[in-house]
Amino acid sequence: MQLKDYLVEADLTYDAFAKQIGAANAGVVAKYVAGRRVPRPQFMAAIAKATDGKVQPNDFFPVEVS
């Protein structure tokens, strides 16, 4: 599941989610959602935990299937 979809489903703001995962601010989460930044390993783990495993590290790496 994409992080943006999870945040909508859970009715969470970027700011609230940033606090849950220990990110500096909502701007960091916005960059994760927009694909402009890939979370560092400790944040990937925090995201997976905060989302009960719905958002996994591989969700940040698009895979093209030919």
Topology of helices and strands:
Elements: H1 3-9, H2 14-21, H3 26-34, H4 41-50
Mean pLDDT across all amino acids:
95
CATH topology: 434 Repressor (Amino-terminal Domain)
Q: Which range best describes the helical content: under 10%, 10-25%, 25-40%, 40-55%, 55-70% or over 70%?
A: 40-55%
Provide the β-strand percentage band.
under 5%
Number of strands: 0
The end-to-end distance, rounded to whole angstroms, is 21 Å
Can you name the CATH architecture?
A: Orthogonal Bundle
- Tell me about the largest β-sheet: none
Global morphology: globular
Quaternary class: single chain
The structure class reads: mainly alpha
Q: N-to-C SSE series?
A: HHHH
Total count of domains: 1
Q: What is the CA-based Rg, rounded?
A: 11 Å
What is the CATH class designation? Mainly Alpha
Overview of this protein structure:
The chain has helices spanning 3-9, 14-21, 26-34, 41-50. The relative contact order is 0.20. The model has no long low-confidence stretch (mean pLDDT 95). The longest helix is centred in the last third of the chain and has 10 residues, at 41-50. Helix 2 (14-21) crosses helix 3 (26-34). The two termini are 21 Å apart. It has one domain: Orthogonal Bundle (434 Repressor (Amino-terminal Domain)). The protein is 52% helix and 0% strand. The chain is built from 4 helices and no strands. The radius of gyration is 11 Å and the shape is globular. It has 66 residues and is mainly α.
